[in-house]
Amino acid sequence: MENINPQHTESGEAPKPIEKDYESHKEDPGPAKPAVTEKDENGAGQALKWVLPIAVIIGLIIWFIMRK
Q1: 45: number of CA atoms within 13 Å, CB side?
Q2: Where is the stretch described as Disordered (predicted)?
Q3: Residue 37, class by beta-carbon neighbours within 10 Å (0-12 exposed, 13-18 middle, 19+ buried)?
C-alpha cells in the first residue's frame, strides 16, 4: 500500500460537471453525458440476482454431502 497512485485518491471536492465542450478541456475533461445519464436496463445485476442464490444453494448441498 505504499505505492498509491495519487491520481486515484479521493479529494473530497465536488465531481466534475458533464462535459459539453471537449475541445476546450482536452487536458482534463469531465464525464460525457451518456456516462452519467445512461440507464442500466440489461446489466449484470439481473443475471446475478438468479445465479448467486442458486450457486449458494448448490454449494451448500455439496458441502453437506462432502461433510459426511
Answers
A1: 5
A2: 1-40
A3: exposed
pTM of the model: 0.41
> Cell 505504499 maps to which residue?
2
CA dist 54 to 2, 9, 43, 59, Å? 40, 37, 19, 8
User: What Rg value do the Cα atoms of the chain yield, rounded?
Assistant: 22
The tens digit of pLDDT for each residue in 11-54 reads 677 777 777 787 777 787 888 788 778 887 777 777 888 899 99
Give how far the C-alpha of residue 55 lies from the chain's centroid of Cα atoms, to the nearest Å: 22
